[in-house]
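Hi all, long-time lurker, first post. I run a small reading group and we've been trying to get comfortable going from sequence to structure in the token notation. Rather than ask abstract questions, I figured I'd post a concrete chain and ask someone more experienced to write out its structure so we can walk through it together at our next meeting. Sequence below, copied exactly:
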Amino acid sequence: MTHIRIAVAASLLGVSDDTVRRWVDAGRLHAVADDAGRQAIDGAELAALAQELADDALDQLDGGAGVRSARNHLTGLVTKVLSDTVMSQVELQCGRYRIVSLISTEAVRELGLEPGVVATAVIKATNVTIERKRA
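-- Answer (accepted) --
Happy to help. Here is the structure in token form:
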């Protein structure tokens, strides 16, 4: 069973350590002592809370494309657009995640992409690499 310390849990949820401690005190999360005697949260319980906290609010900011077959979509702000005559590099800040896309300059113009515009990166890939530190 994986246990995650309070500070790491807070970072993963995008909240403060104090918020996680308050959730423990309120019974929303259950803490146990890890091998070093520090409070830790069960990883599966933390994952369930992360899913509960996730909502569609950001996705609705871009006006939505309707129903998507791609499950991986991140809505955020365009922070940079670098264009030449054919291709453009578009950067979005989606919460704490930076997404970079290479698309045609024609598409950039059609979508009106420029810094400050709300947009959604839709990721559909057959090859997604997952990394993990060894326990």
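A couple of things your group might point at:
The mean pLDDT is 86.
The helical segments are 6-13, 17-26, 43-53, 57-60, 105-111.
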